[in-house]
Design a protein that fits this description.
The chain has seven helices and eleven strands. It has about 250 residues and is α/β, with parallel strands linked by helices. Strands 1, 2, 3, 4, 5, 6, 7, 8 and 11 form a nine-stranded mixed beta sheet that branches. A hairpin with a 5-residue loop joins strand 9 (about 140-145) and strand 10 (about 150). The longest helix has 29 residues, at about 225-250. It starts with a strand and ends with a helix.
Length: about 250
């Protein structure tokens, strides 16, 4: 039987953390929460649930997660965000993995289903949002400054687990637009730091392409008014990404 360390990083997650922890307590051999100095009741909630709680100043997405992984007692890691929940079917799949004869080169992915204002979104390019979340920490580390990914030191075999990882991400349209705006600005700055200087016609045409791609080709219209709003904000923040790059380039001249 493999032992599994569930790793969660948090900052002011009092709204989500209990639901997340309770969804994994029956499949976890230990639960570690690494918190970047929350000012709400996140720590108190975690302490009542008996998890290992560690305070750590923010290191960036990848390094915070790598630090958290380094605190684990077990080789096998399950990385889950505080606003995510393991469905019953997925929990059963993970329990099956723990009994399996897989090797260190096996990694395990799952489909993530996101809630938008109380509705599950199955189009707009949002589902299935496959994520690798279980692996042997000796062969994989997080990399990347914005949308972090796992970099493996050896050839791996990906195994898709049954069941969904439920993502309770956006309770209001404002939550979604706020997060998309933040990441658009970060991405524009990232482009600039990497030496990209020409926003060009991307400011005009990339938002149009983004809307058509998500609303038409990825069937966002089937998600009704929610799909329309998601695709509109996606297009709007795509423009903001290149607008940010252009503004930084103009200042640098």
């Amino acid at each position: 039987m493999k032992k599994l360390s569930v790793i969660i990083i948090t900052f002011n997650e009092e709204r989500n953390i209990r639901r997340c922890i309770e969804s994994v307590k029956n499949i976890a051999d230990e639960i570690i929460v690494v918190d970047s100095m929350s000012t709400d009741s996140t720590e108190n909630i975690c302490n009542t649930l008996g998890v290992r709680f560690i305070s750590q100043k923010w290191l960036g997405f990848s390094e915070q997660k790598n630090f958290a992984n380094s605190q684990a007692s077990n080789e096998w890691i399950f990385s889950i965000d505080a606003d995510e929940v393991v469905s019953e079917e997925l929990a059963a799949s993970i329990a099956g993995f723990k009994k399996s004869g897989c090797t260190d080169r096996d990694v395990f992915s799952m489909n993530r289903l996101t809630s938008y204002c109380g509705h599950w979104i199955r189009h707009c390019g949002w589902y299935p949002d496959r994520k690798i979340r279980i692996w042997n920490r000796n062969v994989g580390r997080w990399k990347g400054e914005i949308h972090e990914t796992i970099e493996f030191s050896t050839e791996t075999k990906e195994n898709l687990l049954r069941g969904d990882l439920l993502h309770y991400s956006f309770s209001t349209p404002e939550d979604f637009e706020r997060q998309m705006t933040k990441f658009a600005i970060m991405r524009g700055k990232h482009y600039f730091m990497k030496g990209r200087r020409n926003a060009g016609l991307n400011i005009v045409f990339s938002p149009i392409y983004a809307f058509i791609q998500h609303y038409i080709f990825q069937l966002g219209f089937l998600d009704g008014a929610d799909g329309l709003h998601i695709c509109h904000i996606t297009a709007k923040t795509t423009r903001l990404k290149y607008k940010t790059l252009k503004e930084l380039t103009d200042k640098d001249k």
